[in-house]
Amino acid sequence: MSSAEKKRLRDRRAQQTLRNKRLQRTIKLEEQVAHCEQHHDDQGTQRLLQTIESLRKQNAVLIRRQQRLRSLILSWDDDYPVNLPSIGQISQDEAIQESLGCPENNTLRPLVSDDTNTCSMGSISVNDSSGLLYSTPASTSTAPPIPQPSLSSPSNVPLSLNKDQFLPWKLLPLNDDDFSSPQGISLPWLAYPERIASSPDTPLSPLDFLYGTRENFLSDTIHMVTRRRPLRDPERLAVGWLGYHLTKWLFSPSPTTYARLPEFLRPTLGQTQIPHPIVLDFLPWPKLRLNLIQRWHVYRELRDELFGMLAICIKIRWPWGENILERDERNELCIRRSFYDTFMSESGWGLTSEFINKYPDLVAGTDIASIIYEVI
Question: Domain segments of the chain: what residues?
Answer without folding.
Answer: 80-102+165-371
